[in-house]
Design brief:
213 residues, alpha+beta, Glutathione S-transferase Yfyf (Class Pi), Chain A, domain 2, 2 domains, four-stranded mixed sheet, 9 helices, globular, Maleylacetoacetate isomerase/maleylpyruvate isomerase, EC 5.2.1.4, Glutathione_S-Trfase_N, isomerase, maleylpyruvate isomerase activity
Length: 213
């Protein structure tokens, strides 16, 4: 039995939903409301003591952290692959994924934004400026890497869908939700839009989830 603890608007949960869908894997969604602080309840902490989503439970074992879950799925369910066979290409797409997962998302996730408002008294406009700054920093690096390497096509790595694309789509969706200016990153955004339009990806988009509001 495979269950995914998820919140519809969580970009990290969205990454995992995309990977599961692309690989054609079935899962039981278990919805965790972040606004209601359900991720901090004793019941959920008994599943994932980190108190974060997503968490994947497979055969009684919990895997936390979205990038670790993506690695696990690739190792246990390698078809269709989300990592290329060539070690240098694998490192390349992992590096792109980590621009999203390490350079943008940790600075802009919900708990950071709440802390900025609660501890330092940032206004909504100041919070959004913070968010947009780190999106711009990260997407500028992402776009520059794509252009410098010249390996992109339909996807970040030519015609192969990879974890770079899986991580990119949710981050672009969040940037749009915060009204970030994405015009300076045309290659990045075009790739994200093509991936988001894939039927498997459309089926797991935030607005399709049962807990969406």
């Amino acid at each position: 039995m495979r269950a995914l603890y998820t919140f519809f608007r969580s970009s990290t949960s969205y990454r995992v939903r995309i990977a599961l869908a692309v690989k054609g894997l079935d899962w039981e969604p278990r919805y965790i409301s972040l606004p209601k602080m359900e991720h901090k309840t004793p019941d959920y902490l008994g599943v994932n003591p980190q108190g974060l989503v997503p968490a994947l439970v497979e055969d009684g074992h919990t895997i936390a952290q979205s990038l670790a879950i993506l690695d696990y799925l690739e190792e246990v369910h390698p078809e269709p692959p989300l990592l290329p066979r060539d070690p240098l290409e694998r490192a390349y797409v992992r590096g792109l994924a980590q621009i999203i997962g390490c350079d943008i998302h940790p600075l802009n996730n919900v708990r950071v934004l709440k802390y900025l408002k609660g501890r330092w008294g940032l206004s909504d406009a100041e919070r959004d400026e913070w968010y947009a700054h780190w999106v711009a920093e990260g997407f500028a690096a992402f776009e520059a890497t794509l252009l410098h390497e010249g390996r992109s096509g339909t996807y970040c790595l030519g015609e192969m869908l990879t974890i770079a694309d899986v991580c990119l789509v949710p981050q672009v969706a969040n940037a749009r939700r915060f009204n970030c200016d994405l015009a300076p990153y045309p290659v990045t955004v075009a790739i994200a839009d093509r991936v988001a339009a894939l039927p498997a990806v459309e089926r797991v988009a935030p607005q399709t989830q049962a807990d969406a509001f």
